[in-house]
Amino acid sequence: MAIPPVPWAEIDTVLLDMDGTLLDLHFDNHFWLYHVPEQIARRDHIDRETALAWLRGEYQKVAGRLEWYCVDHWSRELSLPIAELKEEMSHHIRPLPHAFDFLRAMGAAGKRRVLVTNAHTKSLALKLRITGLGALLDEIVVSHDLGAPKEDARFWARLRGVLPFDPARALFVDDSVAVLAAARAAGIGCVVAVTRPDSHGPERAVADFAAVVSLAELLPA
Question: How many domains, the chain?
Answer without folding.
Answer: 2
